[in-house]
């Protein structure tokens, strides 16, 4: 273990979080290889173990690698070479996993697209990457067919969610699901006719300057940007996660994969991490949050990764109400802020149901290949997002400067990390706004999140800088501080605070709270709002409270379960305010 005594009072210099890691973990070299090579090295001695569980079928690591080899040969026969960019537009299926690692083996880059994108957005991404090859979920056929001739794509491989299902599931699914009719055989081919390679063991070379994958930002402030992530970035996240405790580093653990592959969180923590750590990855192709409790009880996972709203649903589950969950060792949560009241509720739920640990919060960004901090085992503080993973350094800076701030002082959270993106694809101007070289000569990732670091190295996120509300008098209001108070009121189930245009003034915004109530408080809205106003005035300065309220049935969520603040902002402008 390293020294625990602080020396300077500045997090990035003292690195107090290192006391939680071994010297071996801190000093170990980073994995310098492709994601395919890393997967092989971690599993080559355990080929008979189960790698993937998918719709009633179990796939061993031996079968996984055989399929990767065959698919790599098939891509090679099609014409894919080192440095090519191949697009994949699908939900999680074994075929997508085979494609990701097969393309890595060749030395090509995977451009991962969300199948729910509209046709125009998909066309933009295909042309941005100049992709000539596309792996596509069959349900996407109508919109892909409408735009594919406007791109350079000349080969489309069509994947069905049932391609790798068990015979029973495939039969039942075939009866329930209308088959997609595809006629243009010159452009489109199904997976079975594509994956006919003979395992010739085609292999490219590792190149640290070449992206392994391209994923896209959320796009809440415009067209999503393509984030280029290296092999080293993905491999390092896995290596770092392995250092956080035995409940992750042990092989044969059951992992419930509910995050989609087209986000960094999904491909890194939902696919690459569990497979490289020798887990049994239970892949869910069409995840429905409302059915999470059934998935948990049926599969009894030891680990899962989700967003806070997923765990809120588990707490309300009638199925799990009287069940014991001692198998649920790690409930990882990221992708969105955890409201303290919900965090306490989830922790109480886990305790009462026999789970060994609290919810394991983490923090990350697409631009840092998902997680850069995490709570693990007993190393978990309420409201924190954990400590930096062992290869990362955190600092807090005065916004707009490289002036570092001491412990427990709020500023912009920034990271030095080997998992940082290579840059935004063909967008150097935006890249320079987030990857900034400081006067120390080091390139820091500027998160645009306001927070602080305590003396133990735990990171606390207060608010997104872009969520900050600027009043007409120039005063800055942080929505998260308001949300935390509102969520302590018994009648409130959830809330979100956003800035909306001031009705009487050209400049500045009003703070508007959207609130959902618990069922037993329906019909008592007037009383609830009156008491909420009094509570906020008691807990916060008057300039930091809500000026407009609106009670709604439920908060809008993004497809992966995060609160959709941009939708609320648009809605807030349209709705008649309730004050």
Protein model, in words:
The chain is α/β, with parallel strands linked by helices and 579 residues long. It has a domain at 469-574: ANL, C-terminal domain (GMP Synthetase, Chain A, domain 3, 2-Layer Sandwich), CATH 3.30.300. It is built from 19 helices and 27 strands. The strands form 5 sheets. The protein has a 9-stranded mixed beta sheet, sandwiched between helices. Strand 10, helix 12 and strand 11 (280-283) form a beta-alpha-beta unit. Helix 4 (61-78) crosses helix 5 (94-106), helix 10 (231-242) crosses helix 12 and helix 14 crosses helix 15.
What's the structural blueprint in terms of helices and strands?
Blueprint: H1 11-14, H2 23-27, H3 35-43, E1 50-54, E2 57-60, H4 61-78, E3 85-89, H5 94-106, E4 109-113, H6 119-129, E5 133-137, H7 141-147, E6 155-159, H8 167-176, E7 188-190, H9 191-194, E8 211-216, E9 226-230, H10 231-242, H11 246-249, E10 254-257, H12 264-276, E11 280-283, H13 292-299, E12 303-306, H14 308-316, E13 330-333, H15 340-352, E14 360-365, E15 370-374, E16 387-388, E17 393-397, E18 411-416, E19 423-424, H16 428-434, E20 435-437, E21 443-453, E22 459-464, E23 469-470, E24 476-477, H17 479-486, E25 492-501, E26 509-517, H18 525-539, E27 548-551, H19 565-574
